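2024-03-11 09:14:02 INFO queue: dequeued item Bifunctional protein FolD, len=279
2024-03-11 09:14:02 INFO validating residues
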Amino acid sequence: MTKIIDGKEISAIIKDELKSKVEEYKRNGITITLAVIQVGKDPASSVYVGNKKKACAYVGIESLAYELSEDTTQEELLMLIKVLNNKKEVNGILVQLPLPKHIDEDLVIQTIDPGKDVDGFHPQSVGVLSIGQKGFVSCTPAGIIELLKRSNIEIEGKECVIIGRSNIVGKPMALLLLRENGTVTICHSRTKNLKEVTKRADILVVALGKPKFVTKDYVKEGAVVIDVGINRDENGKLCGDVDYEDVFDKVSAITPVPGGVGPMTIAMLLHNCVESVSL
Ligand SMILES: Nc1nc2c(c(=O)[nH]1)N[C@@H](CN(C=O)c1ccc(C(=O)N[C@@H](CCC(=O)O)C(=O)O)cc1)CN2
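2024-03-11 09:14:37 INFO prediction written
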């Protein structure tokens, strides 16, 4: 029988664990504060930022919201980040992505103090991860590892295939699976014979941003499928990069969309905020 990996349930457990830790910090006089910056009014970003603020409030993390207008200049944004870098009471800084086109995302990420980089996107955080040292890990791939571990899915020795090579998901995902002793392959738009590669996977992570792209022809019988995609189908309904109904009977476990990987992204952001106290 196929197991549905419930990210909503697992993220709720993690949030409760973090709530206890935050309460303990508070008893010792330590408060944790996250600065959340949004530039413009992208509707999806507003939902995610709103959910991040709510989640912070639930676990007892203070959040400072900076809602900047669409026409904010790059200089103004960089200036705000530098001010927050220097504020002792701010533990974490998050700039919601995507940013408007006139702002250089890489430069913005590089301007965040690596000690406050709770998104784990700074080159120093990525570098530390690549050499296996402790640091902030990008929230979505970190959440996927938690989903696998808490669902008792072994990674060690498994063929792990990732579709997508983004800096935020694909590449850190590969490093994390490698750290867990998986055998890792990354596929991308130039990969030849994609189906042949993905059919080798015991664990298939799909993050390419194409609705219902992965059908049963791409998966091995009994594979574990992790769907990172968040898209709208032809009827405007939320769907992943995997054709859930098509692959369901062939796989041993799968994450749904919604309710799979997405909620874990926010849980791991809170985890990183708590970690920021001791890192
Ligand atoms: N600074 C960042 N920007 C972005 C990140 C990020 O980690 N840091 N990731 C994404 C957006 N994102 C968080 O910011 C995010 C996306 C989706 C979800 C989520 O819970 N999705 C739900 C469905 C929600 C819906 O109805 O649309 C689900 O999958 O169940 C949480 C966070 C890009 N930007």
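2024-03-11 09:14:37 INFO annotate: The first helix runs from residue 7 to 27.
2024-03-11 09:14:38 INFO item closed
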